[in-house]
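Appendix B. Raw example, untouched.
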Amino acid sequence: MKNIKYILPLLVISAFVACNDIEDVDLVEKEIVAELPELTAGSVDFSNYVALGASFTAGFTDNALFKAAQENSFPNLLAKKFQMLGGGEFTQPLMNDNIGGLVLGGNLVINAQTDTLFKPRLVFDGKGPAALKDVIGDITPTTDFLLNNPTGTFKNLGVPGAKSFHLLGNGYGSIANFPTAANPYAIRLAADNPNASLLELAMAQNPTFFTLSEIGGNDVLGYATTGGDGTNTITDINTFDFAFNTLVTTLTSNGAKGVVTNVPYITDLPHFTTVPHNPLDPTNEDFGPQIPTLNTVYGAINQIFIALEQPNRVIEFSETAASAVVIKDETLDDLSSQIIGALNASETFPIFVQQFGLPVQAAPLVANLLGNAYGQARQATEDDLFVLPSSSTIGEINTKSVASLMNQGLTLQLAGQFSVEGVSLPLEDKWVLLPSEQLEIKQATDAYNQTIAAVASASSDIALVDLNSILSVASTTGLEAGEFTFTTDLVTGGLVSLDGIHLTSRGYAVMANKFLEQIDATFGSNFILSGNVNNPADYPTNYSPALQ
């Protein structure tokens, strides 16, 4: 029913200095460059750095993990700076290709709850995010977490999808526990010791310095990306408290210092802010002509809503302005039985049914269909948030709904008319975050961050990077870094990758610099003052579809 257009701005940077003759040189003032201080470590021993975390730590971007992105992971960027102060080699469990995605024993992985973690990367197709195969044709990942896992000890222990308590779980990297209690990315880096926990893998290396990043992010993210539909729950605060305290206490037990991060408000990310609540355009050639019929059908339901003193549920589409989609709001009282009863009691309803080419005898059937479909329906408001994949669902025909309605006696054409997602068929809960669900996410995030702040403030060995504030700035006024102003706009903002959740490689360079700032402030090093920082301009926002 709509096209969300993404425009990638052309950034042109030009510099021109012209000297027409020898005399011009004498007129140019010489720039005085201040000598930067020598780089110092402060109180930190960077000789053995280990990174523990989830997707951000791994370098996940564009909805995938792949070699080029891993090489630009923020821990790898940090390690390069630490090596200037005696840091050792920083090893990562590199993927086999730049396709992204995983296979198991030569077969594509199918797992309903984690499928998005295993697909090839997204690319920019000139309009917006697109599947790699849609741009370059069918392609199969070559990273097989059964047949070709890397071996050895890895300094980067970032596992996409890992929740706080997963880092403590023994066997999280064991193929024997997949898919119920293991993660393929953990399996790849734990090949030498599959029953060890990620924390044990870190401690076995006796780190002198560590980063513990985005712990708590996945504890709310799974709930958010599934629209709070119940397939994924928010980790309770007691479980999180135990996990985070255990992680920090253990990592610092041998005298190591480290940096932790708090949890941003993930609903500020473009995965949840890009799709508008009112994308239905009356000038659309498919939607526009249907508006009078739709308003007739909903008019019959609206009379019942008004009679039941539920005016907030009235559904009406405008013929002159963009309209909001129709959603199923499970927090509303289910009025299905009242709708069915009122329609069956109406003397005019059988006549109403006839205008759809149905016999009078079909009136009870249609009453049941309408009651069950719209018992918890309403139009969306600007307070509702839609997950990014909903953009390709709104306005599409739900084939399962069509089949169900045909089984109940409707024609193919009529079943199709009543099965348009977000128009005649209310969008399911998995596509939308209701205000009440957003509040649950915020409350959990605030509780996690209180724990993180308390743990960090209680130890002089811990620095805290405030990712929550950093994302807040980026999503409002814009984040100044290097020569850029980063925002959280999808595609054009520069900070967040094509999946709307994870950072671009340029964004990870900015993140690495934020770590360096806090390391300087807490431990007395001088990465920033000595100029030993990452230049965001040296890192891409998007990778070419041809990169394999």
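End of appendix B.
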